[in-house]
Design brief:
The structure is a single chain. The protein is α/β, with parallel strands linked by helices. The chain is built from eleven helices and ten strands. It has an eight-stranded parallel β-barrel with strand order 1-4-5-6-7-8-9-10, surrounded by eight helices. The radius of gyration is 20 Å and the shape is globular. It binds ligand PBG. The site of ligand PBG has 10 residues, from loops.
């Protein structure tokens, strides 16, 4: 009979030992809730492909922020869903546009309880659905788009957003936005760079959530899912341009990139567990094919284990309630 001297199972033998030996822990403060706010005064609208997630009105968003604060999560990330869209995404830079108006209302609601963050990208506001403005040949014009991002940054900062989520994947966007903010005195407004954002099928349900009008894809600006080294390159570039936080997105299928970025970054590294990751677990759970709570906890824990300091997840509040053993809402 073989008698192993080294027995890793010892530390797994009781719940107390497992808890003591655990290398990674989740905490509400490192969770960020993405939220959709729709223009108009009606009721909130459920998003079919994301069961449990809604397009909020400003009022319902206010109540959700109060809940999020009570749950102790670290922040919210706001996306606007406007009624009218045009070629250059005018609504994005209108101080009374839905995203900016919602930001003002939610910053007032949140106070110091959590960090209000805003998506800085044109895709929700353009009629063609791309993340930037188009040139005559129909491609996304990088440098003209940077001018729009700079304007957007100033309006968002003026609305009270504390952390701007640059998700458009234009070259030079971090430096361009940082310079615009600094020149206008917004030196304290921080930049979250969606550095390694891949052209992913897992954004599918999000496109429903924001009623995206996109035809085609974003492969000429978002990263090729085949590329690992390039994800690190993008993160390093954004750090050199002055980003305060870098991000990898999606999370679950890109844990290698996340681990690589976290190994070289000297600033916080976040990850975005995107709509498709959410929808897959919800759908499997709804069929009874997977234990919903365990799958959610394991998926977010794995993202943390791979190197994320914080995670954007649509389960942020529910997960925070579990972590603090609050009764589920
Ligand atoms: C672009 C943006 C997208 C997501 C966040 N910001 C969509 C895209 O790039 O197509 C996706 C988030 C998700 O799927 O949950 N503004």
């Amino acid at each position: 009979m073989i008698n192993p001297v080294i027995r890793p199972r010892r530390l797994r033998s009781t719940p107390a030992l497992r808890r003591l030996a655990s290398e990674t822990r989740l905490h509400p403060s490192e969770l960020v809730l993405p939220m959709f706010v729709r223009e108009g005064t009606g009721a909130s609208v459920p998003i079919k492909s994301m069961p449990g997630v809604v397009q909020h009105t400003v009022d319902s968003a206010r109540r959700a922020v109060a809940q999020a604060a009570e749950a102790g999560i670290g922040g919210i990330m706001l996306f606007g869903v406007p009624n009218v869209r045009d070629a250059i995404g005018t609504g994005a830079t209108d101080p009374d546009g839905i995203l900016n108006a919602a930001t003002r209302a939610l910053v007032a609601e949140a106070g110091d309880a959590l960090v209000v963050q805003t998506d800085l990208c044109l895709d929700e506001f353009t009629d063609h659905g791309h993340c930037g403005v188009l040139s005559v040949d129909g491609t996304v014009d990088n440098d003209t788009t940077l001018e729009r991002y700079r304007e957007m940054a100033l309006v968002q900062a003026a609305s009270g957003s504390q952390l701007l989520g640059l998700s458009g994947m234009m070259d030079g966007q971090v430096a361009a936005v940082r310079e615009a903010l600094d020149q206008s005195g917004y030196v304290g407004t921080a930049v979250l760079a969606y550095s390694a954002k891949y052209a992913s099928a897992f954004y599918g349900p999000f496109r429903d959530a924001v009623e995206s009008t996109l035809v085609g894809d974003r492969r000429s600006y978002q990263l090729d899912p085949a590329n690992r080294r390039e994800g690190v390159r993008e993160a390093l570039l954004d750090i050199s341009e002055g980003a305060d936080i870098v991000m990898v997105k999606p999370a679950g299928s890109y844990l290698d990139v996340l681990a690589d970025v976290s190994a070289v970054s000297d600033i916080p590294v976040w990850a975005y567990q995107v709509s498709g990751e959410y929808a897959m677990i919800e759908a499997a759970a709804a069929h009874g094919w997977i234990d919903r709570r365990r799958a959610i906890e394991e998926s977010v824990l794995s993202i943390r284990r791979a190197g994320a300091d914080a995670v954007l997840t649509y389960w942020a509040v529910e997960l925070a309630d579990w972590l603090t053993e609050r009764p589920t809402r």
